[in-house]
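Q: Sequence in, structure out?
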Amino acid sequence: MLIIGIAGGTGSGKTTVVRKIVQSLPKDEVAVIPQDCYYKNNAHIPLEERLKMNYDEPASIEWSLLVRQLKQLKEGKAIEMPTYDFLTCSRMPETVHIEPREVIVVEGILVLTDKPLRDMMDVKVFVDADADERLIRVISRDCMERGRTPQMVIDRYVETLKPMHELHIEPSKRYADLIVPQGGNNKVAIRLLTDYIRSLLKNPSK
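A: Exactly. Output:
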């Protein structure tokens, strides 16, 4: 089993890179594990307080659960991946059944910040993009999918996203084996990455 970690700032194009990796491999050979599914369950905290919490720092993620479930997948065991509701900022009762696959893609802004998780990765990727481009994508996504107004997104960017990116996400770039500039638009880098993944799959030792 190969574990591929894909990190990068919010709105950098990680989802596009992940989608192209998945499309390049047989459907039954890859599973995607989003970091966002592993936000800590804060349902016991009032909604007003949950909405003000910082979800862009490593402490917001239940890394131990993510690492434990990855280990189970490596052992050939299926997992029940948690799900998360961004509107209520709480974990949902539903889970997603994930079977072991030849390739597991772990994707999220902070996945290269946690050493135990990082040590499990066979390939570490950082998707890079211009800050202005990322902000535009975040405004579009959060307004359409998470019920926020443009001003709410901009305020959150200034108060939380930008400083957390500079403090946690950007420094994690140094752990990457491959940096993909221009996000999901970099067809050459994505092709090189997918070709490399396929070459590893052909190796009997993997």
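The first strand starts at residue 2 and ends at 8.
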